[in-house]
Write a structure and sequence with these properties.
The protein is an all-beta fold. The protein has no helices and 8 strands. 0% of the residues lie in helices and 71% in strands.
Length: 129
């Protein structure tokens, strides 16, 4: 099945463990509000690193999603892994296995995040056993 919609995201700066300025590390909170086929709130944390060349970076994140997906209420967790090389982005966002609860128990899938004109959209290909 495929769910589509948009989301708003707010990032908050968190204190990082390694505060060595040469490390170029960052730690952020994620607060999202999804609309469309997924009506939910997402909360998580992101760790990032920036390269010496502008447009090169990487991040990982874990995000809990709480809400309703195509009429089914529950929760699940997304795992993010992304890199950007000279502005070219490669992203992998998957459901953590066995993280679904409620009517979303048994969910698996992959979310594609699309950013157009500063707005965020998602296409979520998923299956519920």
């Amino acid at each position: 099945m495929i769910a589509k919609g948009s989301f708003e995201v707010k990032l908050g700066q968190l204190q990082q463990y390694n505060d060595n300025s040469k490390a170029k590390l960052g730690r952020m909170s994620l607060d999202k509000e999804f609309s469309g086929d997924l009506i939910a709130i997402g909360k998580g944390e992101m760790l990032s690193s920036f390269g010496d060349v502008e447009g090169s970076a990487g991040y990982v994140a874990i995000e809990e999603i709480v809400g309703t997906l195509s009429g089914k209420k529950g929760t699940f967790v997304l795992q993010h892994n992304a890199t950007m090389t000279h502005g070219k982005q490669e992203m992998n966002v998957i459901v953590v296995p066995d993280s679904g609860t409620g009517k979303l128990k048994g969910i698996s899938g992959k979310m594609n995040i699309i950013i157009e004109n500063g707005k965020h959209f998602y296409e979520f290909e998923y299956n519920i056993e």
